[in-house]
Amino acid sequence: MRLIFDDAEITLTEATLEKVLQEVALLTRQANEGGRVVAHILVDGQDVADLEAFLRGRVYPPPEVIKITTLTPTALVNEAISTALTFLPSLHEDILQKAAKLIQGQNIGGDSWGRFLEGLDWLNSLLAAVLQHYHLTEPKKKEVSFLAEELRQSLREMAAAWEQGDVVGLADALEYRLAPLIDDYLAFFTSLSIVGGSASDSSSQPDLSQKRPPVTKV
Q1: What does the angle CA 217 – CA 49 – CA 6 come to, to the nearest 5 degrees?
Q2: Residue 158 and residue 99: Cα distance in Å, rounded?
Q3: What are phi and psi of 121, to 5 degrees?
Q4: What pLDDT is stored for residue 212 in this prediction?
């Protein structure tokens, strides 16, 4: 088993699971002390969110290569913003497709709704991370607050329509409230990527444990 941490191959005296996890914990702690956080964990090329849970749940075959990459908190947020710029257009399309399917009386699977809500939760986490790790102007801070509140209100309207069995109301909330809001999110993150945010000196880890949003499909 090979362990690569920030492109440096780590010599393991024993390649047992416990020794590997101990070494990873030590390297991660040292990285945190240096103002960096774990951004990516790859096990044989597969992106993994929780290394320990993944390894303990994997009986056979044992992994060949574990690769861990760290970034500064601000760099991690910048990377997430770049991801958002490609994710949001697909999310917008997914919202409109869901609204159309509801009006047509077509079924939307629970897994699709689950990924959809995970994506919205990821957006909310990204907003919080931007607020924490960037020196935003007051207008930009107000924009963050507005976007967060509008998302909460949209979710409340969707939940109310769902509980009442109001299919048309749910479709309207998706198409006429949430879809335009996603356009506002895209404009906000695009403005940050064009102008470039001013990084704060915060070294705490952004709450972006889910580094990439889930793929949205109807």
Answers
A1: 125
A2: 11
A3: -65, -40
A4: 58
- Three-state DSSP class for residue 2: strand
In sequence order, which ranges of 37-137 are alpha helices (DSSP H)? 51-56, 73-103, 110-133
State whether the Cα torsion 191-183-49-61 is positive or negative. Answer: negative
Q: What is the pTM of this model?
A: 0.78
47 neighbors 40 (Cβ within 8 angstroms)? yes
At 127, list the tokens.
């907003």
Among all chains, which residue has been given the structure tokens 């409340």?
Answer: 156
> CB-side exposure of 30: number of CA atoms within 13 Å?
8
Cα–Cα distance for residue pair 83/103, rounded to 1 Å: 31
pLDDT tens digits, residue range 49-100? 899 999 988 767 888 999 999 999 889 999 999 999 999 999 999 999 999 9
* DSSP structure class, residue 211: -
pLDDT tens track for 97-130: 999 999 999 999 999 999 999 999 999 999 999 9
